[in-house]
Amino acid sequence: MAVYTDVAADELAEFLKHYDIGELLSYKGIAEGVENSNFLLHTTAGSFILTLYEKRVAKNDLPFFLGLMTHLASNGISCPQPVKNKSGEALSTLAGRPAAIINFLEGVWPRKPNATHCAGVGEALAKMHLAGKGFAMSRANALSVSGWRPLFEQAASRADEVQPGLRGFIETELDYLEGGVWPKNLPHGVIHADLFPDNVFFLGDQVSGIIDFTFACNDLLAYDVAICLNAWCFESDCSFNVTKARALLAAYGRERELSEAEQKALPVLARGAALRFLLTRLVDFLNVPAGALVRPKDPLEYARKLRFQQGVSSMRDYGIAASGLVA
Ligand SMILES: Nc1ncnc2c1ncn2[C@@H]1O[C@H](COP(=O)(O)OP(=O)(O)O)[C@@H](O)[C@H]1O
Ligand SMILES: N[C@@H](CCOP(=O)(O)O)C(=O)O
């Protein structure tokens, strides 16, 4: 999260009168994250998170995100729950932005994920995929293959300012991924689509819950696995850590078996996942709004991960045998 839109104390106190969550004691903007404006609220009834939805979130999609959290929680997944106001609505407006309050989830996200954390996220992801079955709403992934070129076009003319040659590197990769290699017939369902370490909370070694469903959508389940491989299984120097990948994939596989076709597709899905985050990071890096409380994320981290994924064409290239997925 971040803060792009400020909220005045009197405005917030007035807003909270529409909820049954007590009197406002204090609130502060949360600097972490990059997508929406988020505030930690302390009221006489406890702690809550207030989100004002920003640029990448279409208002029409909000019922999907909020409904999904409710659906997942009622199917055994620990995630924040939307708090309804006195009129029974989870979605409202504050400071001119669509706004929602969710309950506070205990736990901390791992700053340096180890193999145990990776196993935790693998298990949580598979359980989320299974729990997503039966969710009645659907939402196409606006940031899948057809969404990448429009993102690139927003950043292309300045990409080489970030790293010489970056524009050509991205263009070549886009041409490749748009050229018919993207898998079509793999199992699909509701995916989180942004299950990075800062969106998974732990208490000790155990996952206490997952947050931030603002990219959730219907897409290939294995694409979510690929996003996690990129986000969890590299070291800070961007070297791939096969021990972490084995832990993540094995734990995932114990809950939901990855088919042979999904395993075969993982390298190309991981290339796409790397490009997707490279592009959003690049656009954000080049367009930090004046006065926003936000730390843009490093696009080049994902250029390095993409280079690694370009050299992989099978599970064996990761150093993972099929039997390693059901340890
Ligand atoms: N339900 C929650 N309980 C506790 N902390 C939360 C909750 N939701 C968000 N946070 C805090 O806000 C940070 C960023 O939230 P996130 O949803 O990832 O942001 P964004 O809306 O920008 O994607 C988290 O890393 C965490 O510190
Ligand atoms: N995970 C994305 C950024 C968006 O997610 P947030 O949870 O940090 O707001 C990235 O790392 O590029």
TrEMBL record:
- Keyword terms: Amino-acid biosynthesis, ATP-binding, Kinase, Nucleotide-binding, Threonine biosynthesis, Transferase
Q: Which residues form the Aminoglycoside phosphotransferase domain?
A: 27-258
Broad class of enzyme this protein falls into: transferase
| Superkingdom of origin organism | Bacteria
Show the catalytic activity: L-homoserine + ATP = O-phospho-L-homoserine + ADP + H(+)
The enzyme's E.C. designation: 2.7.1.39
Q: Which GO terms describe its biological process?
A: threonine biosynthetic process
Give an example GO molecular function.
ATP binding
Q: Which InterPro entries match?
A: Aminoglycoside_PTrfase, Homoserine_kinase_II, Kinase-like_dom_sf, Pseudomonas-type_ThrB
Tell me the pathway. Amino-acid biosynthesis; L-threonine biosynthesis; L-threonine from L-aspartate: step 4/5
What Gene3D superfamilies does the database record attribute to this sequence? 3.90.1200.10, Phosphorylase Kinase, domain 1
The residues that cross the membrane are: none
The entry's family comment says: Belongs to the pseudomonas-type ThrB family.
HAMAP family in the cross-refs: Homoser_kinase_2
Protein name in the entry? Homoserine kinase
